[in-house]
Amino acid sequence: MDQTFTRRRFLKAAGIGLAATTVACIGGGYVATLAPESAVVNLTFAKESTMSRRILVTYATRAGSTAEIAAAIARTLSDRGFAVDVKPIKAQPEIAGYDAIIVGSAIRMGHWLPEAVDFVKVNQAVLSDVPVALFTVHMLNTGDDETSRANRAAYLNTVRPLVNPVAEAYFAGAMNFARLSFLDRLIARMVGAVEEDRRDWTAIETWAEEVLVAA
Ligand SMILES: Cc1cc2nc3c(=O)[nH]c(=O)nc-3n(C[C@H](O)[C@H](O)[C@H](O)COP(=O)(O)O)c2cc1C
Fold it and tell me: Cβ contacts of residue 192 below 8 Å, gap of 6+?
């Protein structure tokens, strides 16, 4: 996605897109807001030893790129000797009994997905008892300049104070029109987004190699 796209353009496009969806809904077009079946990743990397420390990697996605990043993080953690479960937040995973929890979300309209924010709020008590790391997947504000850094840090303004994370990461994501709902595709096209995959698997694995070292 062209870095000149701004959140304001996304929001403006969303407003127009929502109006279009309202019209579509009147015509029974509720399907406009549904994403095509995106990659839902539900994995377990179990270690032979029952002594292995257990980590949950749970994520919220619309088009699957965050799910694939969650899987890559889990694979690296598994190589480090952890027993790891990867579960979508939408499946409301049981979170008791883990030694650490990693929560990730895609960004839509400048915010974590609502189910991810709700997950943190609802489970705040359990999450405050274990080390928690957060990752965010987005397309804007990926630069090394101060403004980009501040803007992406703001994506966590709602959830950061609730869990006091031991680590937070920001990963460039992907835009795959075939995986977007009608509405999201409309918004993406209106802001001039292009199909691209900017995920940096080395950066993702490097983070997973270092995160939760004390867990
Ligand atoms: C409708 C729409 C709105 C988006 N809004 C933002 C945004 O405000 N800021 C941003 O950095 N990325 C935004 N993105 C980019 C997504 O965060 C990025 O494509 C991410 O990889 C999507 O994750 P997912 O495939 O797990 O759903 C938006 C994408 C779409 C389709």
Answer: 2, 5
Mutation probe of ligand 1 site: the residue of 107, 112, 135 with most atoms within 8 A of C-beta: 107
Torsion of CA 177, 137, 107, 160, to 10 degrees: 170
Contact between 58 and 88 (Cβ < 8 Å): yes
Give tens-digit pLDDT for 78-116.
999 999 999 999 999 999 999 999 999 999 999 999 999
Lowest pLDDT segment from 20-24, 32-36, 138-142: 20-24
pTM of the model: 0.88
- String of DSSP letters for 127-143: HTTS-EEEEEEESSS-S
The residue type of 51 is M
Residue whose CB lies within 8 A of the most ligand 1 atoms, among 105, 138, 157, for a mutation test: 138
Bridge partners of residue 54, in order along the sequence:
83
Higher pLDDT, 87 or 26: 87
Query: How far does the centroid of ligand 1 lie from the alpha carbon of residue 139, in Å?
Result: 6
- Where do the domains of the chain lie? 38-174+196-210
Cβ neighbours of residue 181 under 8 Å, at least 6 residues apart? 32, 33, 34, 35, 36, 62
pLDDT digits (tens, 9 = 90+) for 118-173: 999 999 999 999 999 999 999 999 999 999 999 999 999 999 999 999 999 999 99
Q: Which CATH number fits domain 38-174+196-210: 3.30.479.10, 3.40.50.360, 2.170.150.70, 3.40.50.1000?
A: 3.40.50.360
